[in-house]
Amino acid sequence: MDAQSKINPLYLNQAYMTFLFPFSFREKERGNLAEHLRKNHFTFFSLDQKDLENEYYGDNIKVQHEELDQYFLPFLEHKLFPLRTDQQGFLRFSKKVNETFALEVNDTNFSFLVNSIDIMICPFGIGLITIRTEMDQEQEKLDELLDFMNHFRVLEPKLDEEKGAIIHKGDRQFHTTNEFVFGYLCPSVKSFIVHDEKRAGYFGSLPFFEDERMLSSGFFIANGEDPISNDQLFRMGQLDGKNPEGRPFMSSTNQEYIDRYVQNHVHDRWAPDSYTVTSDHAQITVSLKSPQQLDRPISQFMGTHHYNLMLHYFYKIMLLRMSFEYSQVQWEQDEDYVEELIELISKFSSRYYFGEVSARTEGKELTHTYREIFHLDTLYEEVKQTLNELYRAQENQANKRHNMLLFMLTVFTVVSGIYGMNLVIEDWKGTTDWSKVPGYSFFEWISLITALAGISLSIILLATSGGKGLWKKFRKWKRDQY
User: Which residues of 434-468 are buried (b: 16+ CB within 10 A; e: fewer)?
Assistant: First the structure.
């Protein structure tokens, strides 16, 4: 739908946008990454540092640490906000940027301010870069803002409608967001990212990364002159900005479909003044209230709601990762890998994956929305089924080994029984004369072969068991788990 007359305009006085950029690193490098970030002017974030409450979020925006402390349930709180970098959980390192940039696309320029960036070192070798931006104009159309978000979130454009965006900083130009992030905002992180040589570019870091785009979130403050319509909420959820010709765009012409979408994706607890729309790739809150009335909602957007969204995004990435790793299993060769995958699923489920994360009513409502929109329950059921399949396959392989060992022991037992449990030949007493072996009788040959096979089998079993134990320890050290 490209006709201007069919799309209701909306003017925004201010907008805050956050982008989540996932990457993968080696878990054994966790401590080195934390130390490297400190040396590159990143500050470790903890709730007891009250001077950081208004440091990273923009002018006159304060995120109260007490509210972060009380928002999440106790069993999750200490994992989200560890006090030291040597503790397990989510380690956040923040850096203030406060620089203005411009994104040029389709012959238009959108000026934006990058307030700060976070590097979140998550469990199991997953990292999240958070880029906090805000609109740097007095007033903008919704079309311009959505067009900016839609292009900025694309890490490496591949489709024709995604190409052509350039980020400017003075004389410098960045032709992709990936280049902008690793070439300017946080170049020091690039050396820690895991790359798969079989896959080109950044995405070898997360081959299971869905859609190859950042997850976006925003808080829009409208001018309050017009009510918020369903088509505007739909466009926010889909990030429908402009088409390649530069005209306002909406990716549906069916009003019934749009109404159903809004019904399923919009949290309207504070309607008609404020709405929150959540989709697979964006969550946007839009409000008609004045900025003076929105101090607390904006603070929640930057604080509690951001952490809630980030946590469930981490859930989604981990569930996709485990499904992906299960698809890569080669049952004939990856017995140890299967055991480690079982351990990974078990640790994730028991330590971090919780159905309830907040004691607040609104937090529970948002949690329900995330689980539904991100399809977390479906993904988790698949992972549980994967775990059952892994246990079953492991049990079958163990049964095969036990049956084979039992078969060999039975053979030796039967042979020994035939000989009255005595396989010793007179020639073996004292110094063995091997020159007499060719003259052995048929039954003496059976005794010799059985004795040598039994001794060899015992040595092989001991060597295999010991070697397997050492190999498992080596793999556990090498694998990105704890």
Answer: eeeeeeeeeebeebbebbeebeeeeeeeeeeeeee
